[in-house]
Write a structure and sequence with these properties.
The complex is a heterodimer of chains A (385) and B (144).
Chain A (H helix, E strand, L loop, with lengths): L4 E8 L3 E2 L7 H16 L8 E3 L8 H8 L6 E3 L9 H14 L5 E7 L1 H4 L10 E2 L4 H4 L6 H16 L3 H15 L14 H6 L2 E4 L1 E2 L7 E11 H4 L7 E9 L20 H11 L8 E4 L4 H10 L8 H5 L18 H4 L6 H12 L11 E5 L7 E7 L2
Parallel strand pairs in A: 3-4, 3-5, 11-12
Antiparallel strand pairs in A: 1-9, 1-10, 2-9, 5-9, 7-8, 10-13, 12-13
Helix pairs in contact in A: 7-11
Chain B lengths: L10 E2 L6 H5 L3 E6 L5 E2 L14 E6 L2 E10 L13 E8 L6 E4 L14 E11 L4 E12 L1
Antiparallel strand pairs in B: 2-3, 2-4, 5-6, 5-8, 6-7, 8-9
The chains are: A alpha+beta (385), B mainly beta (144).
The structure holds zinc ion (ZN).
The site of zinc ion (ZN) has 8 residues of chain B, from loops.
């Protein structure tokens, strides 16, 4: 099945700080989709499939009605309410196209947090119900807390340094300086500023945590065959994977593999399906909810052993365009814009097209790894042919 | 003992699965009557034999800090006078594969470290709304 579908269009809105979008979330979604469709050389009426993730508020019924789509033949989201579904939403489009369920599928994510309030914060009232009783009662409340708990143990087991967490933030910042779309464009971050920034939840400083932003991004997926007649160089989806290892779904850190970013299974599957190895990847986008889980995800995807992670991310190795494995080359969640990670998909596609503001030379394989630290994980791999 | 989190902070909503954990005054794991597997948090079925004959099993209340965080930024803002506070993940001595969240009640948040030995203590709280006496499991560091 792999390699039958290709990305033929990408689009995104202007990016805004949280709450600063003058447009509604639905307007943002429509704009990004419209741009992706135009980029592909298609028309809105050609779109007959829609996928998203994270329980998108912009449902396919409303979208298809407003966008003038002729029909909807496929609409789906992966299970789960987090950034771990980014690549899985592309996998759904890949599956639908490869199976022939739809001809042209739009995959997108839009958010206007001013309109809808902040996601990911649980504010318990008088009582904490169900499994949250075992955590919220103790003041354990947010995704930052979850990822910090995983990261502390990961750092302990493998001697991972605070400077290695910093490397993720510094790479994102360095790449954002090359990208005029990025919200941190013109606002470089120094190692000293990183270490001096306030603690949010130790081991995370402020700059270990992604901001909250408004905007939308979208892609169009179709078959490689149809892609030949369209406007852009097609970017084939070589492989995608979503998965859980044994008992990875156990709650409150009772998964046997703790600390895990939930990418071990995903890593094994994707290389097997693609028939390539991590060393064959020239550029990668790793969803940064927080820096620590990115380090874990790099190791679980097989790029290095956990014992080697300090060295793997040091000395500019993950900074583009010339590093050994440039990651988050648009600035990513931390420094370009946090559209729940979907901007990473657009960037991975740009790297294959040769259109990145931090263009890595001779990209044959371009990887996106979804939100780490929450299960199930997912990843998608694009190729140049 | 007084509560680690501020007065008025969320209480556990007691249900059939968590009643013993939050009211017995012991560290409790869920055990399978058929195959003796233990698990936490309580589930509707045993994760090894999928049986549904499950019961509470009391543990010694000793453990080790497996991981921890120090919360410095208050979420929600009502915790601004409580930060910094620590949340620890305790691996039980009786069942090291079982991990339980809690707070370290007798040590500065910033002094918590992986590997510290801990012993369970219990906060006695009254849930007036539900008419229940609660015993919230917490942890004392006994060896740093
Ligand atoms: Zn059993």
């Amino acid at each position: 099945m792999q390699g039958k579908a290709a990305v033929v269009g990408i689009g995104e809105t202007t990016y805004y700080k949280r709450g600063e979008s003058p447009k509604t979330e639905f307007q943002l979604a429509s704009e990004a989709i419209g741009k992706a469709v135009e980029d592909a050389g298609l028309e809105l009426k050609d779109i007959d499939g829609v996928t998203s993730y994270m329980e998108s508020r912009n449902d396919p019924g409303r979208l298809s009605a407003a966008l003038g789509m002729k029909n909807v033949a496929f609409a789906a989201q992966p299970w789960g309410g987090g950034g771990n579904g980014v690549a899985a939403s592309v996998a759904l489009a890949d599956a639908a196209i490869s199976a022939g369920y739809a001809k042209n599928v739009v995959v997108f994510r839009a958010l206007a947090q001013g309109q809808f309030g902040r996601f990911g914060q649980s504010k318990p009232r008088t009582h904490a119900y169900g499994n949250s009783a075992y955590s919220a009662v103790y003041g354990f409340l947010s995704p930052a807390h979850v990822c910090a708990m995983q990261t502390t143990r990961f750092m302990h087991e493998y001697g991972v340094t605070q400077d290695s967490l910093a490397e993720i933030a510094l790479a994102a910042s360095a790449h954002a300086q090359l990208n005029p779309r990025a919200l941190r464009y013109g606002k470089p971050l120094s190692r000293q500023q990183y270490h001096d920034s306030r603690w949010i939840a130790k081991p995370f400083h402020l700059y270990d945590c992604c901001p909250e932003n408004d905007g939308a991004t979208a892609i169009v997926v179709t078959t490689r065959e149809r892609a030949r007649d369209l406007k852009q160089k097609p970017v084939p989806i070589l492989a995608a994977a979503q998965g859980l290892g044994k008992r990875d779904g156990a709650l409150i850190f009772n998964e046997p593999a703790f600390p895990t970013s939930f990418n071990r299974e995903v890593g094994q599957q994707i290389w097997e399906r693609a028939g390539i190895q991590p060393k064959d990847v020239q550029v990668a986008q790793f969803y940064e909810n927080f820096t620590g889980p990115v380090l874990m995800a790099i190791t679980e995807m097989g790029f290095c052993k956990p014992e080697e992670i300090n060295e793997f991310v040091a000395n500019g190795n993950i900074q583009g365009p010339g590093g050994k494995l440039p990651i988050n080359t648009s600035g990513g969640n931390l420094a370009e814009c946090y559209i729940h990670g979907f901007e990473l998909i657009n960037e991975a596609v740009r790297q294959v097209r040769g259109q990145s503001t931090c263009q890595v030379p001779d990209v044959e394989h371009s990887l996106v790894v979804s939100g780490p630290g929450f299960s199930p994980g997912s990843a998608v791999l694009f190729s140049s042919d | 003992m007084s509560r680690y989190m501020p007065d008025g902070w969320a209480l556990p909503a007691i249900d059939n699965k968590n009643r013993d954990f939050f009211t017995s005054g012991k560290i409790v794991v869920q055990a399978c009557k058929d195959c003796d597997t233990v698990q936490h948090p309580p589930e509707d079925i045993c994760h090894v034999c999928q049986g549904s004959a499950l019961e509470s099993r009391f543990c010694s209340g000793e453990g080790t800090v497996y991981s921890h965080i120090v919360v410095e930024h208050p979420i929600p803002g009502s915790l601004k006078d409580r930060v910094p506070y620590a949340v620890i993940l305790v691996s039980l001595t009786d069942h090291p594969q079982i991990r339980i969240l809690g707070n370290p009640v007798n040590i500065e948040a910033r002094d918590v470290a992986v590997g510290q030995k801990v012993r369970a203590v219990f906060e006695s709280l009254e849930d007036k709304e539900a008419g229940l006496e609660l015993k919230i499991p917490q942890w004392e560091v006994i060896q740093t």
